[in-house]
Specification:
Elements: H1 9-13, H2 15-20, H3 25-38, E1 65-73, E2 80-90, H4 95-104, H5 119-136, H6 143-158, E3 162-164, H7 166-171, E4 183-185, H8 192-207, E5 211-215, H9 235-247, E6 250-251, E7 256-257, E8 260-265, H10 271-290, E9 310-316, H11 318-326, E10 329-333, E11 340-345, H12 346-360, E12 364-367, H13 368-373, E13 385-386, E14 393-394, E15 398-406, H14 419-439, H15 445-454, E16 457-462, H16 464-470, H17 478-506, H18 512-531, H19 538-561, H20 576-580, E17 595-599, E18 605-609, H21 612-619, H22 624-637, H23 665-675, E19 686-689, H24 695-707, E20 712-717, H25 735-741, E21 762-769, E22 772-780, E23 786-792, H26 799-816, H27 821-828, E24 837-841, E25 844-847, H28 850-862, H29 865-871, H30 876-887, H31 894-900, H32 906-910, E26 920-921, H33 929-937, E27 954-956, E28 959-961
Parallel strand pairs: 4-5, 5-8, 8-9, 9-12, 15-16, 19-20
Antiparallel strand pairs: 1-2, 3-15, 4-15, 6-7, 10-11, 12-20, 13-14, 17-18, 18-26, 21-22, 22-23, 24-25, 27-28
Helix pairs in contact: 5-6, 5-14, 6-14, 8-9, 10-12, 11-12, 12-24, 14-17, 16-21, 17-19, 17-23, 18-19, 21-22, 27-28
Length: 972
């Protein structure tokens, strides 16, 4: 950072060669193949192996297809914002995945013949383009290999084994520009022309559905002079213009808001002003909110606040961090001549950084020395910036296309991992990703030249958190981290091995010769880190062994052929594509919570316990009856604490990002540190911190990130943002003003008791809770409705009998005065005291107390199904029907089932099979998993509302994704 190589120099030095390669396409590949022949080797092309498909059967013919209607409404006002009927998807695709693909990725105007209506059309559009480009540019040994490549890729996409990033689905095979990259890095020099180019280039990238990052450290400081003699504006002032521009552009049309990253080096003289920018704006939000302005996220007045469209990060180096550690001073350098402008106390500046992040989550931190130590192209230039989510880090004026594997697709029934299939999947995906660069268009010629010269790729994965939980491994555990590290090493090692093979077929990347020694050095560092892994389980041991073999084989090939790609892997947020693949968790993240929403055919949604929970319980050895009881408990409470029969040592397996047992901040940091040595790029992830966290806690996290070898880190402290979507109400008159203007009449209403008739229908039943027996007599009005309850649990005259009599009278009088039964049910269910445990009721196998059992039983007998569903109380038959529907891949309508199901006796119910999966229940007010978590926790979550459908979004890496429509705030 002290003596940076002038960015853009590699474009100038190779301008003639780059100009000749402007339209790369076939000419580039012809030259590459000719070069191989000139060295006495004739590339034979790739031989594709059959892994997923069946010979003689097209992948589409192996699945059952069905037609669906996709109608998307705005959750806030109920208006319809999208409608397409009769779309075609495989029957095993969830409603949510189908909705998102239909609304986000189908091309053509809705209602016209050109509109895509089937997943087949979408996959054929993309995969067909990849196959044709691969054949044109000499990737395949024969036409049969090209066809097999097409079928294998189709099968994997059809079965949600992996997904390309969103721009591929937006653009490939359409009449639009074939932009395939999601991540871009720009450069800005110290001139007005360069700054204005930055504004324009960012806008073009946002328009194409992607995001961009830039380092502004070459712009002279506000303390330096202009050539005219005046004082420079400084980089922070130019951030205002870029922020305003980004705020007016929606990426990819109506796809998402602009995503951007702004970085400043820690030795820039304006670093203190940069650190404070967003924290100051947060104070402005508070002042405006208190003055009555609408400052909710998405509110009418929030647009007046600056710097809200970018993530900010400070780029620190080892010299600064060592000064922080020792309590020394640090020099801030001028941009014109490198002279010392100011000397600051390093600890004080680091405290300012942590204070600002504590207040508003910005800025994040990037560790320059680590980033450039793992850089494969240092002879070309330093890595100075990243994309908006901090996972792509490479040369300025470059881009990266992404793809992510669904790790749960490689988990076996017995908890193993299909290593060979994973290797073959990585081979195929990396090949396709590299082919895409051959035909891709880019928003600017500089970016096109840089990407074609270095061919950066970003393979990654999703569902790590689900895989660990299903395998019975806590996310924050050494076993969990080693397994994650082994998988990451295998992925990157295989990707680079295939890259070396591609170099032998179609040539190494153009910048390889200049950077060969550095590239080989970084490959050896990856391999050495893999060798240092100490697997703690047989599954991790098998993966680690294969990873070592892939690195060894790939490095040998690379010594001979070079590599086709300067970068191969990173871990992206996988927001929209994670939903497309029906992933329970995104990127490297743990589960957000143990309960989530599931969309239903025809509209609406239901709350379910994540499907990984019963898988984990079975893997841990719990019998089916206990699995059902624990899952039912989680459905009620949202967590596992005090779940019946669950061992306390197994609690950590079910720890999540939020909720009752949230993973500690350092648990997130340690997981990032475990996987970072096996990634070309970095990791999109935010470290969640509780509201009670201190500035010192933030300092510790940022400092430990440097010590543990991370490349970047961002934190988020709960409720640190002011503009939260807590209410849709607009500011109005104050209550005292209304009262003064219009005196209010006070009318006193008194309840009237409605007594039961002398002769009334009633029923008496016996029950047992943990061996304690009793009798329940319930009487109702002739025109329906419970009006009287009597409980007997002890001998007449005993204290317990007296208490039960008094309690029965109180409840009965309350019912007769109009207190709704559901009010009592809501208050008394989940009450916990002895006796508690197993009951003799087939509908209610577990009870936390006698009161819990009594009012659940009353709810089952006297409340309509809609009210019971809201309270989460179901019969065993209803749970079994849901289980059967889940197993058959069908949607389940509880109300419709209750209306059509025959009335059963208790004996009939006892013969029904137990539910095998999570109990489902609708929510009264929640519209997403984030809002559901708010209900469980009883406090608001810091997440924005979706601009498309109004639903509260959920975290995905360092970005957010909408579960309702798939819109994201990020770049992948």
């Amino acid at each position: 950072m002290r003596n940076p190589v002038p960015q853009g120099s590699w474009q100038k030095e190779n301008s003639a060669a780059l100009a000749a390669r402007r339209h790369v396409g076939a000419r580039q590949m012809t030259r590459a193949v000719g070069a191989e022949k000139g060295r006495g080797r004739t590339p034979a092309g790739l031989r594709i192996e059959r892994v997923w498909t069946t010979e003689g059967v097209h992948p589409y013919d192996e699945v059952t297809w069905e037609r669906r209607d996709v109608v998307m409404t705005n959750w806030r006002d109920g208006s319809i914002n999208f409608e397409q009927r009769g779309v075609e998807f495989p029957e095993f695709w969830s409603v949510n995945a189908a909705n998102i693909v239909t609304t986000k990725y189908f091309r053509g105007a809705v209602g016209t013949p050109e509109r895509e209506w089937s997943l087949r059309q979408l996959i054929d559009r993309v995969v067909g383009t990849y196959r044709r480009a691969g054949e044109e540019h000499g990737y395949f040994a024969s036409g049969a290999d090209a066809e097999l490549f097409e079928h294998e890729l189709t099968w994997m996409l059809l079965h949600q084994v992996f997904s390309f990033n969103s721009p591929v689905w937006f653009n490939v095979g359409t009449s639009s520009k074939q932009q395939v990259s999601a991540c871009f890095i720009l450069s800005v020099d110290d001139s007005m022309d360069s700054i204005l180019d930055w504004y324009k280039e960012e806008g073009l990238i946002f328009q194409g559905g992607s995001g961009a990052g830039v380092n502004l450290s070459r712009i002279r400081a506000s303390k330096e002079l202009l050539s005219s003699g005046g004082t420079a504006s400084g980089p922070v002032s130019f951030m205002r213009g870029a922020d305003a521009s980004a705020g007016t552009i929606k990426s990819g049309g109506a796809t998402r808001r602009a995503a951007k990253m702004v970085i400043l080096d820690v030795d820039h003289p304006d670093i203190a002003e940069f650190i404070a920018t967003k924290a100051k704006e947060e104070n402005k939000i508070r002042a405006l909110r208190d003055a009555g302005f609408d400052m909710d996220l998405g509110g009418d007045d929030i647009v007046s606040v600056q710097y809200q469209n970018a993530n900010n990060s400070v780029r620190v180096n080892g010299e600064f961090m060592r000064a922080v550690e020792s309590g020394g001073t640090f020099e801030l350098l001028g941009r014109l001549d490198g002279r010392v402008i100011d000397t600051v106390d390093a600890k004080s500046l680091f405290r300012q950084l942590a204070q600002a992040a504590w207040e508003c989550a910005d800025p994040g931190i990037q560790y320059d020395d680590t980033i450039n130590d793992w850089h494969t192209n240092p002879e070309t230039g330093r890595i100075t910036a990243s994309n908006p989510c901090s996972e792509y880090m490479s040369l300025d004026n470059s881009s990266c296309n992404l793809a992510s594997l669904n790790l749960m697709k490689f988990r076996t029934e017995d908890g193993g991992f299909e290593v060979e299939k994973f290797v073959k999947a990585v081979e195929l995906v990396i090949t396709a990703m590299d082919i895409s660069i051959c035909f891709a268009d880019f928003p600017t010629e500089k970016i096109g030249e840089g990407t074609r010269a270095y061919r950066q790729l970003g393979i990654g994965y999703a569902n790590l958190g689900a895989l660990l939980m299903a395998s019975g491994l806590p996310y924050d555990s050494e076993q969990g981290r080693v397994l994650a590290a082994a998988i990451t090493s295998l992925m990157t090692g295989t990707a680079y091995r295939r890259s070396a093979e591609l170099a032998g077929v179609v040539g190494a990347y153009d910048g390889y010769a200049r950077n060969a020694d550095a590239h080989k050095r970084v490959m050896r560092k990856h391999a050495a880190a893999s060798d240092d892994l100490k697997p703690t389980t047989p599954v991790a041991a098998a993966i680690t062994k294969e990873a070592a073999a892939q690195w060894q084989r790939g490095n040998k090939l690379g010594e001979r052929n070079g590599w086709r790609n300067a970068q191969a892997s990173l871990l992206a947020p996988t927001g929209t594509i994670g939903l497309m693949m029906d992933c329970d968790t995104t990127g490297i993240e743990p589960d957000l919570a143990l309960v989530k929403f599931k969309k239903l055919v025809g509209g609406g949604s239901m709350q379910i316990v994540n499907r990984t929970v019963p898988q984990a319980l079975r893997h841990l050895g719990y019998p089916e009856e206990q699995v059902e009881a624990i899952v039912e408990y989680i459905a009620e409470h949202g967590h596992v604490v005090d779940a019946p029969g669950l061992k306390t040592e197994h609690y950590p397996v079910f720890d999540c990002a939020m909720g009752e047992r949230a993973i500690a901040p350092m648990g997130h940091v340690r997981m990032m540190a475990a996987t970072q040595p096996f990634l070309s790029g970095a990791i999109s992830k935010t470290v969640n911190m509780p509201e009670s966290a201190t500035v010192e806690d933030v300092e510790k996290i940022y400092f430990e990130g440097w010590k543990l070898g991370l490349k970047a880190l961002a934190i988020y402290r709960d409720n640190c943002k002011v503009g939260q979507p807590l209410s849709n109400a607009k500011p109005g008159k104050k209550a005292d003003e209304v009262a003064a203007a219009e005196p209010e009449k006070v009318i006193e209403y008194r309840p009237v008791r409605k007594r039961l008739p002398k002769k009334r229908p009633s029923q008496t039943m016996s029950f047992s809770v943990a061996g304690a027996e009793g009798y329940l007599t319930a009487s109702s009005y002739p025109d329906d409705g419970l009006g009287e309850v009597f409980l007997k649990m002890s001998k007449q005259g005993s204290t317990l009998a007296g208490v039960m009599d008094a309690f029965s009278v109180a409840i009965s009088i309350g019912l007769q005065y109009g207190v709704p039964l559901e009010t009592y049910v809501a208050k008394f269910t989940n009450m916990r005291f002895e006796p508690a445990g197993m009951t003799d009721d087939p509908d209610l196998r577990m009870a936390t107390s006698v009161m819990d059992y009594i009012f659940r039983r009353l709810a089952l007998d006297y409340l309509p199904v809609e009210r019971r569903a809201e309270l989460g109380i179901f019969t065993s038959a209803e749970r079994a029907a849901q289980a059967r529907a889940e197993a058959a891949g069908e949607e389940f309508d509880l109300v419709e089932y209750a209306a059509s199901a025959p009335i059963e006796s208790k004996g009939d119910k006892a013969d029904k099979p137990a539910a095998e999966v999570a109990e489902v229940r609708p929510s009264r007010t929640a519209g997403s998993s984030t809002e559901l978590l708010e209900l469980v926790q009883g406090k608001a979550a810091d997440a924005p509302l979706c601009f498309t459908c109004g639903t509260k979004m959920r975290p995905a890496g360092s970005c957010y994704v909408c579960e309702g429509c798939g819109s994201t705030s990020g770049c992948s």
